[in-house]
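This protein record is not my work; I was only asked to verify it. Where you disagree with what is written, explain briefly why. This is what I was given:
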Amino acid sequence: MTEIHTPRLLLRRWHDDDLTFMADINADPRVMRWVDDGSTLDLDTTAEEIERWEEEWDEEGFGLFAVELLGSGELIGFTGLFVPEFLPEVLPDVAIGWRLGAQFWGQGYASEAAHATLEFALQDRGLERVISISRLGDRASANIADKLGMVQERETTHPVHGFPLVVHSIDLTEFAA
């Protein structure tokens, strides 16, 4: 089982009892504002998401980690790697993504987890490049990309929803792990 420990976090595969906590995160309009069309997700849709994330682990050897606080064991969201099939123009690149509950914003958890994920991408999976994709205007995600040393590569348009997207990238051979 793949686990990564950081000073404050545990990044791990998903457990059955994570579903209700992740569903609560996905049901918050503040969290989902910049995700897809901004719609919140219910319990069943969250269960389908987690199932897809776990399948990606099995198929690709990487995926989205459940992120929990080391001190309390509380699930705070996810970060990890995924194949951005919704945006064929960036393939075969692998993307990094994150989603945390609003009560955990502004504490550096997303940056800490994302940095550990980039180390995993380079050292354990041998990836040479990783991108991030966010909606134009999502300053919080852009700030995390900046902290990771990613550079804005281009703007594009979401093929389904039509809103502008920003693609950041990093060459992991130059990443300071």
Observations:
- The two ends are 22 Å apart (CA to CA).
- The chain has a mean pLDDT of 95.
- Residues 133 and 167 are 5 Å apart (CA to CA).
